[in-house]
Amino acid sequence: MSTSTAAGSMPAKTYLSIGSIKPLGARLDVPDAGGGCGTTGGEGKASCGSSGGPDDMPAEIWDKVKNHPCYSEEAHHHYARMHVAVAPACNIQCNYCNRKYDCSNESRPGVVSQKLTPEQAVKKVVAVASEIPQMTVLGVAGPGDSLANPAKTFDTFRMLQEQAPDIKLCISTNGLALPDHVDEICKYNVDHVTITINMVDPAVGEKIYPWIFWNHKRVTGYEAAKILHERQMLGLEMLTARGVLTKINSVLIPGINDEHLIEVNREVKKRGAFLHNIMPLISEAEHGTVFGLTGQRGPTAQELKVVQDACMGGANLMRHCRQCRADAVGLLGEDRSEEFTLDKIEEMEVVYDLDKRRSYQEKVEAERQAQHAAKQDALAASAAIDVDQHMKVLVAVATKGGGRVNEHFGHVTEFQIFEVSAAEALFVGHRRVDLYCQGGHGDDEQLPSVVKAINDCHAVLVAKIGACPRDELSAAGIEPVEQYSGEFIEKAALDWFSGYRQRIAAGEITHQDRGDAQIRQGAFTGLAAAA
Hints:
The protein has 2 domains: 13-26 and 61-344, Aldolase class I (TIM Barrel, Alpha-Beta Barrel), CATH 3.20.20.70; 354-522, Nucleotidyltransferase, domain 5 (2-Layer Sandwich). The chain is 33% helix and 16% strand. It has helices at 59-65, 118-131, 150-163, 182-187, 202-205, 221-241, 260-270, 290-293, 301-310, 342-347, 354-383, 443-453, 467-475, 489-505, 516-522, 527-530; strands at residues 13-17, 20-24, 80-83, 92-93, 135-140, 168-173, 192-196, 211-214, 217-220, 245-252, 275-280, 317-318, 329-330, 393-398, 414-420, 425-432, 459-461, 479-481. α2 (118-131) packs across α3 (150-163) and α11 (354-383) runs parallel beside α14 (489-505). The two termini are 26 Å apart.
C-alpha cells in the first residue's frame, strides 16, 4: 500500500504483528516533537497528555487542553462537556456497536434519547452553558459518525461559534471520511478530534468490522478493513500536520485485539497522536450488538490495566474515559441530559452571560491550583521518607467530584483507582460497582461484588463507611480509610501511602502483595513479549 500526500510519499513500512509481517501505509513527513506531545509525532518523552500539566508541554498546547475534561485528567474533576446528537448516519458497521434512539436507560456510546437538528443542538448548548458555567467543550460524537453527516456537524459548529465563541469544539469519528474533511475541521477551529482506531492490521480489523460504505458501495471483509486502516492513518497524519490535537480511542476486545493494541499504540504515536484511550468492550447481550449476541466477553478491569501498562512509553494514555452517551451532559461520570430535554429548554429563560462564565471558571482554576499545591506538598513529604522508594500500590477512592475524597462507601457506583508510589499518585482507571447501600434491602448481597472489584487495592479512601463493610474490607486485606474525608485525592493518597511505609518500617505491619504481579503475568499470554 502506498499513500501520496501534499508532503510527498514515502516507502511502505513493515512491522511485526502477532505472528505475521504486514505492510503499513506510508507516513507524512511530520516533524519530530516528542511522543505526540504538541501537534507532531516522534519518539520523545511521554510526560504530556492526559496527566500532564503546564510544565510538560508548550504553552499553546496547554491552553488547548487545560480545561478540556477528555484531554486532561486533572481537568475532568472540574470541567464539564456535552455531546449533541446531530449525526445519526454511519458509514461503517462495528461488531461492538448498536445505535439506539429514544433510549434513556443505557450509558454507552451510540445511545441517545433525542436526535437533534443543528438549530436544536445549538439552542441546547447555549441553554446548558448558561446553567453549567464549567461546561467548556461541545462534541459531536454520533450517534452515528460525525463525518458521515458533515453538513449537520459543521452547520452546528458554524452557528455555535457565533453564539458561544468560548466553547471548544470537538468531533469523534471512525476516520473513514476524515481525510476529505480536514480543511473544514480547521476552518471551524476544531482543535480536538477523536479517531476510533482498533487495529493497524486488516486481518485483525475484519474480525471487528463486517462492512464499510465506501465510494457509494458496501465493501466487506479484509478489503473493507484495509481501506478503513489506510484512511485512518492518512487522516491522523493530515491532522497532525495541521496542528490539530488527536485522541485515539481503541476498544479492547479480548482474544481479538488485546495484544495488537500495543502495536496500535506505537503506530499512532509515530503519526503524532496526542492521547491514546484504550477502553473496555461493552458486550452485554441486552445491548444487541454482534459481539454481545455471540458471547464475546469484555475485559476485566485488571486485564484492561495490563494492556494500558504495556503501552506505557508509547503514545500518552487517557485512563479516565467514561464511554459517554452520544448526548451526555455534565462532568465525566455523570449525565445531566434529562435536565435539558427540548421541552424543558423551551421553558427556560436562557441568558448566555460570557462574563459570568469566565468569572465562575476563574474560581474553578483557583480550586484547581489549590489541588495542585496540596499534591506538591504531599510529594515533598513523601520524598523525605527514606523507606522503599520503589514500592507501588493501588488505592481506591470514593468521590462524587471536585477531585476530593467526598463520597460515602455505601453510595459509590464507581471507584477511582490510583497507583501510588513515593514519587506520584497516578490515576490509572475507574471501577464501576453495584450500589452497596440500598436502604437496607440487599446490602449484604452486594458487598462481595464491591470488594471483588477493588481486591487488588491496598486501601480504599472514603468520606464515611459503616461497620459491616469496614470489617469485610479488612478481612479481604483492604484498609478502609476515613481520615482524609474532604481532602484532595492525590494529597490524601500520598499521605496515606507515607504513613503506610512508615508503619512498615516500624514493624507495625507487613507489606502484602495484592496479587498485582500474578495478574500482570497471567492476564494475557505473550503480552510481555509483544511489548
